[in-house]
């Protein structure tokens, strides 16, 4: 093998097109947005902001809580048909 047969020059890479550049920067912006969202979940808002949100609701008069008689019927179940009594 001689040096003439081996081509060690870097391959020719075409310049990125406008669409490829927009796509690349859009992916970077999307990754940054995802990191911000993950950080917002890991580090929630401070307690002072949460207390400010809760205080106005405490000043409202308490409404009586209605008790439910039981679990709501499921929508999948069909109502039972009443059968007539035979004599």
Automatic annotation (TrEMBL):
Compositional bias of kind Basic and acidic residues: 57-66
Membrane-spanning segments: 22-43
Region of interest: Disordered: 49-87
Localization annotation: Membrane
Ranges annotated as biased composition (Basic residues): 77-87
Highest taxon listed in the record's lineage: Eukaryota
Keyword terms of this UniProt record: Membrane, Transmembrane, Transmembrane helix
Pfam families reported for this sequence: UPF0239
InterPro entries reported in the protein's UniProt record: UPF0239
Protein's membrane topology: Single-pass membrane protein
GO cellular component terms, A-Z: membrane
Protein family (similarity comment): Belongs to the UPF0239 family.
PANTHER family assigned: MANNOSIDASE, BETA A, LYSOSOMAL-LIKE, MANBAL PROTEIN, PROTEIN MANBAL
Record's protein name: Mannosidase beta like
UniProt organism field: Oryzias latipes
């Amino acid at each position: 093998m001689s040096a003439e047969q081996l081509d060690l020059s870097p391959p020719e890479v075409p310049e990125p097109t406008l669409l490829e550049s927009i796509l690349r920067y859009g992916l970077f912006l999307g990754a940054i947005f995802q990191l911000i969202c993950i950080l917002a979940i890991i580090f929630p808002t401070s307690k002072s902001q949460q207390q400010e949100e809760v205080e106005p609701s405490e000043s409202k008069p308490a409404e009586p809580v209605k008790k439910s008689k039981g679990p709501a019927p499921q929508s999948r179940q069909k109502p039972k048909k009443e059968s007539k009594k035979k004599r």
